[in-house]
Amino acid sequence: MNKIIAILAIAIFLISGCGQITGETIKNEQIKVGVAIPLTGWGTYYGHPLQKGMNIAEEESNIQLIYEDSKGTGKDAVTAAKKLIHANKVDILFTSFTPPTHAVSPIAKASQTPFIYDAYIESPLEENKFAFKINFNAKEGCKKIVQIAKQTNKYQKLSAIMSNTEYNHLCLEGAREIEPNIDVFWYEFGEKDFRTLLLKTKNHDAILTIGWEQEEMVPLFTQKSELNINTPIICATEVECIGTNVKKTVPKETLEGTMAIGFKNIQDTTFAKKFKTKYPAATESEINFAAIGYETILTIADATKDCQDKDCILTQLNQPTKHNTVFNSTGFKDRKQELELTPYVYENNKWDQISPR
């Protein structure tokens, strides 16, 4: 009888132990995040530092990152997303830039894969309940910077030079909530000759725009200097408006008085110091882009720590952020990342924060 009791006790212990081991194994199983970003092509100035920031977060979390090259295009992003979802069986999908976001969102929706995108637009949120938006919001950001410009009497007559893209239409929508009378001069994305449009702004006090640094802001500022047009620029974000390439290319007097909206004190964060130690040659723009990647992966790590399925991940992504964030973000609200935006003015060859009035 004693032997039977002993055997039963051992059996119960083993069953109980196995149960705990199995539970721990499931709990500690790595969440796979599929990342489709530009690793070759024109968008690498953004994709490479984004990847470096994500890799640092991967080292600090229980996340496994699987990369595919979107090349910054919708077509290549679709190929990348399908591979990540169907071959790599990722739990969450991430992409950046507007064309890849639009192309990938329906694929994520069809597979019911939580989808985090890094773009200035909001339409994927309306079309795809599995979508979550990070980074700058064009409508809210432009509204805020135009409001600051108006309060500080930076213009009487406002113009805008904008690519005919969704994020610029959103920017204009937000800006017109503050200033209804904006003369807008449109161009198609990819065009780089802004001389004719710049000449049309000569009778205006400021020019509102959103653009990518290398593709748009470098030629815009360069041609503005060549034409000797002194109309100041109001732009977003500050690291895309006047980044390393603009500073290298454009006379500094042309940049004086530029206003922008962006993130607060990223360069002073613990992450920035860590990144600079690891990559001593990193520019301010690269640190900002890397911070976006770092923040995204830690937010995912928060949401997936106790999750075993996609429904749980979707619920937890909408919960308040648990880590110390680089952007002073509280996490997602209505599937949009809550961010603290700060107005800046470019003076004496650097960005200075504009104090609220």
Name the descriptors:
357 residues; alpha/beta; Rossmann fold
Q: What does this molecule look like?
A:
It is a single chain. The longest helix has 26 residues, at 2-27. It is built from 15 helices and 14 strands. The protein has 2 domains: 27-134 and 267-339, Rossmann fold (3-Layer(aba) Sandwich), CATH 3.40.50; 138-236, Response regulator (Rossmann fold, 3-Layer(aba) Sandwich). It is globular, with a radius of gyration of 24 Å. The chain has a 7-stranded mixed β-sheet with strand order 7-6-8-9-10-13-14. The chain is 48% helix and 20% strand. Residues 1-28 have low confidence and may be disordered. Helix 2 (44-59) crosses helix 14, helix 3 packs parallel to helix 4 (98-111) and helix 14 crosses helix 15.
